[in-house]
C-alpha cells in the first residue's frame, strides 16, 4: 500500500501572527465606527462625558432642536390595541396552514355560538366583497356540518339586510394535523344582550321600535323561505351603529341583524318532536306540547321586546300574564307585546302582520 507523501518541515510555513498594537488599533477603529454620531458641543458645561479605559463615548445632553415623535399619543394607543387584538396570544399560531380560502389572521375571542367559537379575523387582502375585518366562526372539520349548513342558509338569506352577512369560508390545519372549518361573517359592534345590560333599566322606546322592526323583518324573511329560526334571543341579535347622528331625531341609533342559524329548521305541517332553543325564550306550546313553528319565533320575539322594555331577563316561561311594564312604555308598545305573547299560538300575530302594527310601522 502506497504511503501518502508528507510535506517536509521546511515547507510548512508558520501562520502570520497579528501584532498586538495592530490588533488594538483595529478594535479602536471598529469601536469608532460603531460610535453614535452625536453632535459636538462647544463647552464642557453643555455635555456630560463618561470614560471607559482608553476609549470613551461622549454622551451629549442636547436641548436644542428636539426630535419630533412620529406618532401622537392616541395613534400609539391605537397601534398597541391593534397589535394586542391580532397577537399570537389569540391562539392562531404562525405555523397554522391555510388549505383553502383567503389569507387571514385570527384576532381576539368574541364568544361561543351554538356550534363553534367566534373570533375577530383580519383579512390579508381585503376586497369590496370581503372586508378587512370580519368575524370568524370556527369548528373542527369533523364537527363542522352545522356550520356548513348555516353557510347554505345565510347564502339563501343574503338579500335580507336584517340577517348577518356571510363572506365565505376556509379550511386550516394546525401543527398537530387537526383541520378546522372557518365561516367568515359580518363583524358587528355588539349583541343586543350586552346593549340591554349596559342600559341599566331598559332601552328608550325609540330604540326599541327601530330594533324590533329590524328583528321582525328578519324573521319575516326566514318564515317566507319556510324556515323557523328556533333560537331568537338578545344574544343572537347583533347591532350595527347607524352612520348618521341620532338622539332627538326620533330614529333608532342602531340597525339590528339576526345571527346564529345553527338550530334553524325547515317548517313542516307537523312540527311535533324534539324542541330546540334557549329555555327561557320557548313558547308555551314548545314546553307543554313539544310543538315548534312560526308562532314560536314570534313568542321569542315578544320575550326579547319585553327584555328591552324592562332591562330584565325573562324568567317566567309561561307568562300567563304580562308583567308590569315601566310607565314610559306607550299603549302601542303594550299592545304589540300582547300580540306576540298570546298564549294561543293560533291567535299570535305573524311576522308579516306585525310589520303593519303601529308600534313599528313607518320606523
TrEMBL record:
Chain positions covered by the region annotation Disordered: 1-57
InterPro entries, A to Z: Kinase-like_dom_sf (IPR011009), Plant_MAPKKK (IPR052751), Prot_kinase_dom (IPR000719), Protein_kinase_ATP_BS (IPR017441), Ser/Thr_kinase_AS (IPR008271)
Biased composition (Low complexity): 41-54
The Protein kinase domain, residue ranges: 104-360
Gene Ontology MF term list: ATP binding; protein serine/threonine kinase activity
Keyword Repressor: no
Residues reported in the UniProt entry to bind ATP: 137
GO BP terms: signal transduction
Family annotation (Pfam families): Pkinase
Family that this chain belongs to: Belongs to the protein kinase superfamily.
Protein name as it appears in the record: Protein kinase domain
Organism per entry: Dillenia turbinata
Lineage, top ranks: Eukaryota, Viridiplantae, Streptophyta, Embryophyta, Tracheophyta
Amino acid at each position: 500500500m502506497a504511503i501518502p507523501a508528507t510535506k517536509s518541515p521546511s515547507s510548512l510555513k508558520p501562520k502570520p501572527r497579528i501584532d498586538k498594537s495592530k490588533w488594538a488599533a483595529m478594535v479602536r477603529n471598529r469601536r469608532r465606527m460603531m460610535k453614535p454620531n452625536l453632535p459636538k458641543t462647544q463647552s464642557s458645561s453643555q455635555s456630560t462625558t463618561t470614560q471607559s479605559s482608553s476609549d470613551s463615548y461622549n454622551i451629549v445632553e442636547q436641548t436644542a432642536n428636539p426630535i419630533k415623535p412620529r406618532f401622537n399619543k392616541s395613534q400609539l394607543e391605537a397601534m398597541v390595541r391593534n397589535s394586542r387584538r391580532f397577537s399570537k396570544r389569540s391562539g392562531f399560531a404562525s405555523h397554522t396552514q391555510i388549505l383553502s380560502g383567503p389569507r387571514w389572521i385570527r384576532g381576539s375571542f368574541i364568544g361561543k355560538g351554538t356550534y363553534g367559537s367566534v373570533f375577530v379575523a383580519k383579512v390579508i387582502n381585503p376586497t369590496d366583497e370581503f372586508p378587512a375585518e370580519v368575524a370568524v366562526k370556527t369548528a373542527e372539520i369533523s364537527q363542522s356540518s352545522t356550520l356548513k349548513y348555516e353557510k347554505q342558509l345565510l347564502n339563501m338569506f343574503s338579500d335580507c339586510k336584517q340577517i348577518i352577512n356571510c363572506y365565505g369560508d376556509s379550511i386550516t390545519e394546525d401543527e398537530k394535523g387537526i383541520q378546522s372549518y372557518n365561516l367568515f361573517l359580518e363583524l358587528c359592534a355588539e349583541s343586543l344582550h350586552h346593549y340591554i345590560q349596559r342600559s341599566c333599566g331598559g332601552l328608550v322606546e325609540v330604540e326599541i321600535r327601530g330594533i324590533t322592526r329590524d328583528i321582525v323583518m328578519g324573521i319575516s324573511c326566514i318564515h317566507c323561505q319556510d324556515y323557523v329560526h328556533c333560537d331568537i334571543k338578545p344574544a343572537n341579535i347583533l347591532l350595527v351603529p347607524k352612520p348618521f347622528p341620532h338622539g332627538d331625531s326620533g330614529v333608532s341609533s342602531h340597525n339590528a341583524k339576526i345571527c346564529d342559524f345553527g338550530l334553524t329548521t325547515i317548517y313542516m305541517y307537523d312540527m311535533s318532536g324534539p324542541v330546540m332553543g334557549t329555555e327561557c325564550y320557548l313558547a308555551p306550546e314548545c314546553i307543554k306540547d313539544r310543538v315548534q313553528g312560526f308562532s314560536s319565533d314570534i313568542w321569542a320575539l315578544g320575550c326579547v321586546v319585553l327584555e328591552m322594555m324592562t332591562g330584565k331577563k325573562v324568567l317566567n316561561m309561561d307568562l300567563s300574564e304580562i308583567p308590569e311594564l315601566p310607565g314610559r312604555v306607550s299603549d302601542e308598545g303594550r299592545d304589540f307585546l300582547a300580540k306576540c305573547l298570546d298564549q294561543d299560538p293560533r291567535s299570535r300575530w305573524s311576522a308579516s302582520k306585525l310589520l303593519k302594527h303601529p308600534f313599528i310601522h313607518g320606523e
